[in-house]
# Entry
Amino acid sequence: MNVPNTAPELFTWEFATDPYPAYAWLREHSPVHWTKLPSGVEAWLVTRYTDARQALADGRLSKNPAHHAEDAHGKSRTGIPGERSANLMTHLLNIDPPDHTRLRRLVSKAFTPRRIAQFAPRVQELTDGLIDRFASTGEADLIHDFAFPLPIYAICDLLGVPAEDQDDFRDWAGMMIRHGGGPRGGVARSVKKMRGYLAELIHRKRDALSDDLISGLIRASDHGEHLTENEAAAMCFVLLFAGFETTINLIGNGVHTLLHHPEQRAVLQASLERGEHELLDAGIEELLRFDGPVELATWRYATQPLSIGGQRIAAGDPVLVVLAAADRDPARFTEPDTLDLSRRDNQHLGYGHGIHYCLGAPLARLEGRTALETLMRRLPDLRLAADPADLRWRGGLIMRGLRSLPVEFTAR
# Structure
């Protein structure tokens, strides 16, 4: 990796393709770095592992956007576009204890090890069904044809979205992906449509409760947990919004990484052919560390003056913890720029740390393991069908993922 000699330019298309040399420079020369983001908001970037881990668990860094000064027009340019106007602010990415504790306790019931294990056959069914659609053609775009629809349909099933409505969710989610790094209006329109649908669905569910997450939230609301309709809709929204894109990128980035590291991929495939899954489990963690789906943790705001890595942070300043930089920190990981699927000491921050650790991480890991194992078993000669230089990465701030991933293989 060629680390630049001078301060790198951030958030360009070249940076999006490979941000790791720039992050290496920041870790060494400006580990807590004040910068202007593409939106015009100025924020601190935290890049070293020790600082990042501490910041993620620091109660003085609030998730509530109310702690950040708005622009001259009274509008916030942080967070998810459209969530404020759609009255979807009261979700886990925007609140602190005690509200965060209450809502997380309610939703965590859907992500227990037992519940995730029960969901595994459905994830396998969805995975095989999607591969069946393109296995006979010998080619596919793994993002559009596989990594994108898999988590959409999975989270819809978990929420309890009827099958006949799930394609609408796929369309709204697709607009979020397409416009994630561009004009905010496209995302905001999708958020508004999703908000209207969720309100309608919650009302419908009240008359026909079942064993799904939305029904569980309604039961909690009806039995004294004081869950408002806005809170229920916001929770469903953020589980969909945060859940599907992280899994898309885990699968897409994971396959992309394996295609560029054929020796590691061969070792993994050999272990799976022997019926051994230990390396796959460790490999998922290494893929999360090496080129994970979440590049920057979601927004935090200083509630009082504090110090991070020796840098003074003023009250109200936005702070973005750069997970991608922290997980390549040589002070924490041996040979951090080397992919080692058997890496043992791997306490990466790919899904965060502290009370805001990603609630859906068990589901994302299940989907990632299932997707990679099934692809390598059913399409063992999978290979890239494009010049690597032609691949394009989405330009969003928080997530890291490919726009497309053309592949080819022997038709089955």
